[in-house]
Amino acid sequence: MIKTIAKKLSVFVLALSLLLMSAVQFSADSYLVSKDGFYYLIENSEAVIYGYDYNNRTTDIVVPNTISDYPVTKIAPRAFSNNTKLTSISFTDAMSLKSIGKYAFYACSSIEEIIIPGWLNSIGEFAFQDCTSLKNVSIYSNVSVIPEQAFGNCISLEKINIPSTVKSIGSYAFYNCSALTELTLSKNITDIANGAFYNCPNLTLYGYYDTVAESYAEQNNIPFVHLDKKVISGDVNLDGKIDINDVTLLQRYIAGESVLTDDAVKAADFNKDRIIDIIDATAIQTFIAHGQN
After folding, report:
1. What is the pTM of this model?
2. Which residues pair with 40 in a beta bridge?
3. C-alpha to C-alpha distances, 136 to 63, 114, 155, 250, nearest whole angstrom
4. pLDDT given at position 198
5. Could you give the CA distance from residue 109 to residue 131 in angstroms, rounded to a whole number?
């Protein structure tokens, strides 16, 4: 009985905390206000944006490179969250901007496009969650992580590019992106968390053989299109079968009479010792002789 009451109380406290977090952004009186209407503070000789004064101002916002001669380096957590009037946000002038905080644009339901410039290197969890009108996202930066629920429930999202610098995609990063149909994932991705593409019924992933992306798609029944050819060990001439022609080409390569592509070199290393030599040619001949092709 006591455990049940304690459990209910903890759930209530958690719900109340979340409600207060979403309802109370900050006290405007505690912040400086720029001439363009940004609430900000100076931290370590850098300007951090904490919000925006929408009264009698534009809803198409351009983040500046400096405020009061201080470089703008951060968008603070929840800075613009729940602002349904915000229709566009541009970072193209903010060349000192390095990070977008957690929930920074959470539930900004009127934004249709986001461009992440090359100099921005960090996107916080839930940063664009519930941006239900967001259709296009272009990421040109060197971000290494698409974090937890960063684009969750962006139900209108049709197009987003994931740069090759990304190594990890967080849990539910794209959950319920029902309009998303195609997404290309590079060979550099080493981790895709559970539920990253949960309830994306129209999604097809594009990627490469023997990658985390391929394994994730297979495990989660997501259609997967290969962007490269399957390299068969021993198929030195890359014609889809292993025969004497492969042995001949490999012998010519070893003798310095032929050049192989990267995929052909990978296929030629039949014994996987990272050395292309006569041992590989002999192993392929033995493979053919035993009729294992």
Report:
1. 0.76
2. 32, 49
3. 19, 6, 11, 48
4. 97
5. 5
